[in-house]
Structure formats: structure tokens, C-alpha cells
Amino acid sequence: MTDARSYPNRPFLAVSAAILRDGQVLIVRRARPPAQGLYTLPGGVVEAGESLLEAVMREVGEELGMTIEPIALAGYREAIVRDADQRVAGHYVILTFAARWIAGEPILGDEIAEALWLRPSELPSLNTTEGLAEIVAAAFERLQQSG
Prior knowledge:
The protein is α+β, with helices and mostly antiparallel strands. It contains 2 helices and 7 strands; from the N terminus they run E-E-E-E-H-E-E-E-H.
């Protein structure tokens, strides 16, 4: 069986969560492609019939066993992966939500190799997905604006 997300004929819509608690953000290290080995935010692909908020809460619950409250859209990123022949091997449009931690501690599964609560100032020392520090900063700003 082939993965429909490999060599797609269209981008896939995904969501991620910048989960904020006590001045820290939850950062995860991916255990599988895409982004295997990189530090990033938890999230995944939106399923048909699912709202963006439902998707981000489901993904965090499935990946980490945690409950969150999405507050506001913090921004977006595009992940376009090309193979050696410059063909599009993967394409994701990722909407990132600033979210408050509600309950639970990260439970690692087959998708997440590591989960860390970090201050934004600690992000530059990690091998992260592109633009992670900027999207985390935007999430903190959105959360402050929401009161």
C-alpha cells in the first residue's frame, strides 16, 4: 500500500499547536517522516469533515494524550519536500494555533520520540523545522492578546 501523501497531486492541510504553559512551549522531536528527528510542534493532517479546532485537539490527544484549548491562529507554514529529481515528494500547508495547556503530560508514542517544555529562548539550540522560533513567538503574542 502506498502513502497517498507521498508524491501528492495537491497540498495537504495540516494543523499544529503551540501549547503554552507557565512561559514555556511544548516542543516535540518527530520519530517518523516527515520531519523525522527534527524538533517541532505537535500536529497532523486535518481529516475530511473535521473543523480546524477539532483537528488540532484530536492530533494533540492522539500524539501526546493531552488536552488543550486552542485560542487563536498564530500563523502558517508550508512544508514542501522535493526529491533528488526536484519532484514534489510532499506538500503540507500547516496552520498553527496558540493553545493553552489544560491537562495531561506528554505520553510518547510511535510518532513522537521526545517532548520538552522549553522557554522560547532555548529554541535556537535545537535542530528545528524552519520558522519554528517565529511561529512560537507569534503564539505567545496571540495568547497575551487574548487576555
